[in-house]
Write a structure and sequence with these properties.
The chain is an alpha/beta fold and 354 residues long. It has 13 helices and 15 strands. Bound molecules: iron/sulfur cluster (SF4). Iron/sulfur cluster binds at residues 262-265, 267-268, 295-297, 299-301.
Length: 354
């Protein structure tokens, strides 16, 4: 897949061969600067390189400058229905705006947004969703939902190009993973701009993660997608964790900590799930690029535990800790995780974790 035209979103390169960028969106009231900043920081710490904030009214637009001043990552303003809010957000330092040109106002008003973006170096994301297509495309949507989304996005790109503006990212989102996949495949052929991927209204943490992983995974594996957002109902930090895991799974991000755990079976004589969850939690805190195997028994356990950097192979209420391919010691279940992390600390120079 040919690489896309690169845009610079407040210093973060998107497209043009740059690493795929993880984004998320705050769900605090944007005019509650303290709460929003706290969430932006949490998202950045979790791995979001860009954060979007909703700008639905004057109060939110008025908060953008304060947020930009303190935010550790570039901010993108999400604006609908009122072009003057987009202009205000750009003026306040937003690195980009996400608009749907179809609902932001007249052509003259779109041009005002474009002029502000051009003057201040902001990027415009043309964001079309299956729920908000132009009237004439709604009929086509009934039989060709992906084609209708793409047509809508291409029309808006053409509109911005006609204004001499090409610092564009494009997203075409549907709540259907299959439509999202089809639309972005078509878009990748039709336009040269960086593509932002996401399944809109994907759902709750469990179902939304799976829907997003399937749609984004297929596209990213085909080389389509320059920035991604996993939309989940709930704490957006979870969105970032899922998005990063999708990228790691496809070797599109450094692997980080990875726990290999067996599914357990009738041979298991150790309570493995809490062990695996505890290992995962503590490993994530260490932030090391490490593979740790947590295995239930002696059948596959020692083999997997030896291949990983570290591991536990369970026995009957106890287990063997492995480090760099060798069994180190046998420990009762209650002390296994502590023994594993003591081993990691002694060999990796990490602080003891709890
Ligand atoms: S590693 Fe052992 S306990 Fe785990 S699934 Fe395989 S055979 Fe069962």
């Amino acid at each position: 897949m040919a690489s896309r035209l690169q845009v610079n979103v407040g210093g973060v390169p998107v497209g043009g061969g740059a690493a795929v960028v993880v984004q998320s969106m705050t769900n605090t009231r944007t005019d509650d600067v303290e709460a929003t900043l706290s969430q932006i920081r949490a998202l950045a710490t979790a791995g979001a390189a860009l954060v979007r904030v909703a700008v639905p009214d004057r109060a939110a637009a008025g908060a953008v400058a304060a947020l930009v001043a303190e935010s550790p990552v570039p901010l993108i303003a999400d604006v609908h229905f009122d072009h003057s809010l987009a202009v205000a957000a750009i003026g306040a330092g937003a690195a980009g705006v996400r608009i749907n040109p179809g609902n932001i106002g007249s052509e003259r008003e779109v041009r005002e947004v474009v002029d502000a973006a051009r003057e201040l170096g902001a990027v415009i994301r043309v964001g079309v969703n299956s729920g908000s297509l132009q009237r004439d495309l709604r009929v086509r949507e009934e039989t060709d939902p992906a084609g209708a989304l793409v047509e809508s996005a291409v029309r808006y790109c053409t509109l911005l190009e006609g204004m001499g503006f090409t610092d564009i990212k494009v997203s075409a989102k549907s709540s259907s993973p299959l439509v999202t996949i089809a639309a972005n495949r078509l878009l990748a052929d039709r336009i040269p701009y960086a593509l932002h991927l996401g399944v809109t209204e994907a759902g709750t943490r469990w179902a939304g993660s799976i829907r997003s992983a399937v749609a984004l995974g297929v596209l990213l594996a085909e080389g389509i997608g320059d920035t991604i957002r996993v939309s989940l109902t709930g704490d957006p930090v979870e969105e970032v964790r899922v998005a990063l895991e999708i990228l790691r799974t496809l070797d599109l991000a450094p692997r980080g900590a990875r726990v290999i755990a067996c599914p357990t079976c009738g041979r298991t004589r150790i309570d493995l799930e809490p062990l695996a969850l505890e290992v995962e939690r503590r490993l994530e805190e260490l932030g090391l690029d490490l593979e740790v195997a947590v295995m239930g028994c002696v059948v596959n356990g020692p083999g997997e535990a030896r291949k990983a950097d570290f591991g536990i192979a369970g026995g009957d209420g106890e287990g063997v800790v492995f480090a760099q391919g060798r069994p180190v010691r046998k420990v009762a279940q209650a002390g296994l995780v502590d023994a594993l992390f003591a081993e990691i600390a002694s060999r990796k120079g990490t602080p003891p974790s709890r």
